[in-house]
Amino acid sequence: MTARDTSGHSWSADPYADALRAGRGPLFLRRGDGWLLPLDVERWCARADTVDRQVLDRCEGAVLDVGCGPGRLVAELAARGRTVLGIDVSEAAVAHTVGLGGPALWRSVFDPLPGEGRWNTALLLDDNLGIGGDPRALLRRLARLLLPGGLLIAETVPVDVDERADVRIVCGTDAQGATGAAFPWARLGTPALLRYARPLGWRTVDQWTAGGRCFVSLRSRSTSSRADPPNSTAVISSQRVRKPSAERPVADS
Length: 253
What we know:
- This protein has helices spanning about 15-20, 40-45, 50-55, 70-80, 90-100, 135-145, 190-195, 230-235; strands at about 5, 10, 30, 35-40, 65, 85-90, 105, 120-125, 145-155, 160-170, 185-190, 205-210, 215-220.
- The protein is an alpha/beta fold.
- The protein is globular.
């Protein structure tokens, strides 16, 4: 089953995968009440821009890009010779990342991952604070993936918002367009992120804006023991495709 947008482009039942292959939208997140959030597919499929590179300059050690999408950030870090791994629940996104020369896994952040507890930096850019629809669960999971005192760099919504909803990816504003399955999502401005993060032991390092985008860097709880960071061989040897679990977060024990 396919649909066509006004430019004549054909869309299947997986509009996100189609948009990544085409390198363009229109693509939106749609809430049940019809509200639409445009997704910046063209920027995601382009090379890392000046703002991206400035963010990546802040990364420390081995980097885990959570929700790597088509892989521009993973590819840029790999080109710099950094140890990096992208993860995404979209098979098309992972294939695109690998095609750019970046290591990536088809996996949810809530699935078992290589180097758990040994990553120096985690990235949550391009609206990926919304993953799973539960910010507390996502922040707890990232704390377990990072080294004690590890760095999280997150991109926030440039307004003060704290919202959770079930959404679908749709290929256009027309209700007849191709629509993906519903999944839980969240939108957080910087104040909301800090409200969730501080009680979980995260410490604010910096807040900044660039190119109309907003960012926060946080450090996880520090302890006296530190593990060795993951090495490139261990990450690369784990690049087998595995079907991800549902993106809804697992319950904490």
